[in-house]
Write a structure and sequence with these properties.
The chain is α+β, with helices and mostly antiparallel strands. The longest helix has about 40 residues. The chain starts with a helix and ends with a strand. The radius of gyration is 25 Å and the shape is elongated. A hairpin with a 3-residue loop joins strand 9 and strand 10.
Length: about 250
């Protein structure tokens, strides 16, 4: 009985040591992986990397992780031609089936899903930034975007008639969708009346409707769907064969 108790104590102690070693190893690996992702994507700050699953060491021996979660606070994505960029806040990706090299110099995930947020002021940058004539003596421009409720964006239009700005912006509810996996499209559900006169639809939509291209997302992930929220548009992203590093 005494020998059995000693063996149990030894087993418990060794098990505790293994857990400690395993957790130290995963912490080190997360730091290395974060540095690799930062260098590969040219990030301004180091991302959060969380390697899921236990034990970690057996996953290392197998050369793959079941699940890795990556979080980037602010990511500067491409916004079309001319070197324009758009800031994406709180980009979070859940990657599964991550195959990696021994030094984490390369890592590729079978699939990835995630979320991100684009603030309204960032999205507004690609709307009509200058007053545009929609009818003789009448100009309009988008001055603000906000949450319109029920997944809609409220677009505020400032209208000037014969050189005089109207006291209150005209607002219109717009739908927001993803086009071609890399573009956010904002389109008015109904046309507003500007300056108290009827204006051709094509002229009004030159102001109300616009698109924002978003490319160069980490690892080649793409936009899947988008919905208006309180502080901006919430975006769902996904991808296959997503490259984290290398």
């Amino acid at each position: 009985m005494r020998a059995l108790r000693i063996l149990l104590v030894i087993a418990v102690v060794l098990g505790g040591i293994f857990v400690i070693v395993d957790r130290v190893a995963v912490h080190f690996a997360e730091g290395e992986a974060a540095d690799r992702v930062r260098a590969s994507e040219g990030l301004a700050s180091t991302p959060d990397v969380d390697i899921k699953g236990f034990p970690f060491l057996t996953q290392v021996l197998g050369g793959s992780f079941d699940e890795v979660r990556v979080g980037i606070s602010d990511y500067e994505a491409g916004a079309g031609e001319g070197g324009k960029t758009i800031r994406i806040a709180d980009l979070r990706a859940d990657l599964r089936g991550v195959e990696f090299s021994g030094d984490f110099g390369s890592a590729v995930a079978d699939s990835a899903t995630g979320t991100a947020t684009i603030a309204y002021d960032e999205l507004l940058r690609n709307a009509k930034a200058e007053p545009t004539q929609v009818a003789p003596g009448i100009t309009a421009e988008v001055v603000a975007l906000s949450d319109g409720g029920n997944g809609k964006i409220k677009v505020a239009l400032e209208t000037t008639v014969l050189g005089t700005k109207l006291p209150e912006p005209v607002t219109v509810l717009s739908s927001v969708t993803v086009v071609d996996g890399n573009t956010v499209r904002v389109r008015a559900d109904a046309l507003p009346v500007l300056g108290g006169v009827e204006i051709a639809e094509s002229r009004v939509r030159r102001i109300t409707d616009f698109e924002q291209k978003i490319d160069g997302l980490p690892g080649g992930i793409s936009l899947e769907k988008v919905q208006a929220a309180e502080d901006g548009v919430d975006v769902t992203v996904s991808g296959k064969d997503v490259r984290l590093a290398g």
